[in-house]
Fold this sequence. Notes:
heterodimer, A: 276 residues, mainly alpha, MetI-like fold, 13 helices, 77% helix, B: 299 residues, 14 helices, MetI-like_sf (chain A)
Amino acid sequence: MTARHRAPGRVAVHLLLWGYAVVALLPLVVMLVNSLRPTSEIFTAPLGLPASPTLRSYGRVWTEASFSTYLLNSLTVTCGAVLLGTAVSALAAYPLARYDFFGNRVLGAYFLAGLMLPIRLGLVPIFYLMDSMGLIDSLLGLTLLYAASGVPFCMFVLSAFYRSLPGELDEAARLDGAGEFRIFGQIMVPLVRPALASVTLFQFVPLWHEFLYPLVLLRSDEKFTIPRGLSQFFGEYTTDWSALFAGLVLATAPLFVLFVLATKQIIAGLTAGMSK
Amino acid sequence: MPRWRVLAVFLLPAFLLYSVFIVYPLVTALDYSFFEWRGIRQTGFAGLANYRDLFGVYPYDQQLWRALAHNALFFAGTMLIQNTVGLLFALLLFRYGRGKRFLQAAFTTPYLVDPLVVGYLWSLLLNPTFGPVNSLLEAAGLDSWALPWLGDTRTALPVVILVNAWQWVGFPMLLFSAALAGIPAEYHEAARVDGASAWQAFRRVTLPLLTPAIGVVSVLTFIGNFNAFGLVYAMAGSTGSPAGSTDVLGLLFYRVAFVEGGVNAIGRSSALAVLMFVFIFGVSLLASSYFRRRERRLL
């Protein structure tokens, strides 16, 4: 068991891990690089650096293929849904976690059941429900549906968080004559802010990627979210590979930006909560 | 204790949103499945006829079993490849020195990408004429390996499984890494002192202690694979081409409900939704309780 005996094994481990890092990242690099090359260049050499990098495909995808509209729609629906879902859950989780009223446990279980249900299987009734409310091909309809799908997860995290807060906090405020809404707004919400930040981020990613709902519920191009628009776009631009790669980059970039920004935000939120 | 009216203001918005858009549709799907439909009109109680149709009427009788088999293969392949490799990476990275952070970040980066984008990206990369994968294989002298990966009924499903594993392998890796960090160092020490080989220590000490993590990874993999839609749709369209060789339950449900437009589409697709619901929810519950029992025996 000397270092010399183990050396070949070590080398194999390094090779395997760094080799796989290339496999994990190279496709994404190819996506980015090929979006900067004209299609003719991609067709003659599928792998290669751009002879003269150009953003022309991005311009085409952004305006002609209306990615600017898709991006705006995705932002509207996802942000609206995340805010709504988080807000109603922050309200509902408070009494569920802090008061022992009649029906509390049943109601808590009712909300948490949603964590395990394959909710997309309700799609056919959802379609006719939306139809009856005039919410087919509507960003509002999609926002409400997305918001509802985030409720179980938010309730789960926020209830645990409210429960961990000491009971003296609201008792003191109540003795001072503060009403429930005041206690909620001025004491509870500031204290659960770190949890609000993380449930916001965790809802954001799957909603940003949601494809089946908009595939079924949206009809017109000017209402499409990014995933729905992307599937349309791949049907129309089949031979314009440069544009296809640019579209994939544009669909991916917002989430990468969000993660770079939000990771700092979340860490800041957590540490700020600790220093108090 | 606040008054009921105050409680209602706190509780009602979430209750209404969740009940109307999540619970009501799931309950209604069950109701729909017991009726015969003509377009959007119910024409009478059908009992279990819609369920019987799924197993007895062409083409559902063939497509249902085929899709179920593909989902089962998808799950088995993912457990075997993605989760085993994820565990291997977690073990290798456990005591890895410089570069550990970078490697973990690199392995997990693909799961920030939309599954739909991953599917479209790989369908371009694997294109038989202009795709970089085959041009790389040819450059390496492996011309006979430059196959139409997604165009051949024998390779299409395995390729979909591999692409899915490429996207998600960081996830079991992170969960197993966290679980490994939670195993006290003395256990490994004790195994070594008793003269156990590295493999014996892994098999007899590490692996049993990973049971909770393996349980979580298995159940989440099951739920993820049986709900697969975007990735397969992007790589193989709504029919699971070529020739249905990548068709899965999610695609089949979408087609029966919204694409094929049969007269009784609502009745049959609702029956299919209920079957999938019972299967996915039931298996996840059974698996969860199985792993909890194993865990308890461990302690």
